[in-house]
């Protein structure tokens, strides 16, 4: 992380921002008084390039962190933090519920690529007598992303900028965009469950075309372009100047953590659905004939439904808190 930050011009000092929590903990017994909320560093070092980028004003949220800006005569980085640093830490903390809920909304993402195409290989993969690799369905998601991104930037963004307020465009519209993407993730897992059910009930999977899996990739393409870009723009618009380089890193961290949790989810599902010492769990078996991907995708749909409403709750609470300031 430090290497990435330095590559961007060293806009983030981990000692300054992480020190807010350390200093607040050290001063936990000190009573916060408005008279002691001073900013000697901003006054004395007004020419400091990083501080002069943006000066944040004091807010009443997360008052515990205000203890870090209590001036006691020592301006060491581990003894005092100016108000701007404290407010930056507050902004980051207030975004954590959205960050965490987005991780769980991204749980189905990797399964579209690791399970759908191999399952489609058991179906009829010929189109007009030409055999097509099921992995080529991945290209559909990329094409969908390209088309939607161009249409969104060319038509939807100008309308939002013209007919909505700057506050709505900078925060609400991006969260709505991410939420719509998570809805498509839920639709994708629901469609996958129905397709797997149809494949299992067929006398011979070769009687079904692998194009039945196409709607899943359309949904995952819409999910990725809406939620991924929406979250990047949301973090980039809401984070203060010194933390803006972290916006893309936070979204990649969301995706990476979700993929890492997918492995744990598969292990848990396999253990819970297995009876005794037999390999009869939903995801047990070397072939797709013995697995119950239909039940697994149905479970993912229910899980995504729950995570989506948690995301909506966190996003709504964040927007209400922002509008009250």
Structure description:
InterPro entries: MFS_trans_sf, POT_fam. Belongs to the major facilitator superfamily. Proton-dependent oligopeptide transporter (POT/PTR) (TC 2.A.17) family. This protein has 325 residues and is an all-alpha fold. The protein has helices at residues 2-7, 14-26, 40-44, 49-52, 83-105, 111-120, 138-163, 166-201, 214-238, 246-273, 293-324; strands at residues 126-127, 130-131. It has 2 domains: 8-86, no CATH class; 95-324, Growth Hormone, Chain: A (Up-down Bundle), CATH 1.20.1250.20. Helices cover 64% and strands 1% of the residues. The chain has a two-stranded antiparallel sheet with strand order 1-2. A hairpin with a 2-residue loop joins β1 (126-127) and β2. It starts with a helix and ends with a helix.
Note the main attributes of this structure.
325 residues; mainly alpha; 2 domains; two-stranded antiparallel sheet; 11 helices; 2 strands; disordered N terminus
CATH architectural group of the largest domain: Up-down Bundle
Which structural class fits the helix and strand makeup?
Answer: mainly alpha
Fold-level CATH name of the largest domain? Growth Hormone, Chain: A
CATH superfamily of the largest domain: MFS general substrate transporter like domains
Compute the number of strand runs. 2
Distance between termini?
Answer: 32 Å
Strand order of the largest sheet: 1-2
Q: Tell me the number of structural domains.
A: 2
**What is the helix content?**
55-70%
Largest beta sheet, briefly?
A: 2 strands, antiparallel
Radius of gyration: 25 Å
Q: Which stretches of 5+ consecutive residues score pLDDT under 50?
A: 1-11, 46-52
Strand content: under 5%
Q: Assembly type of the shown chains?
A: single chain
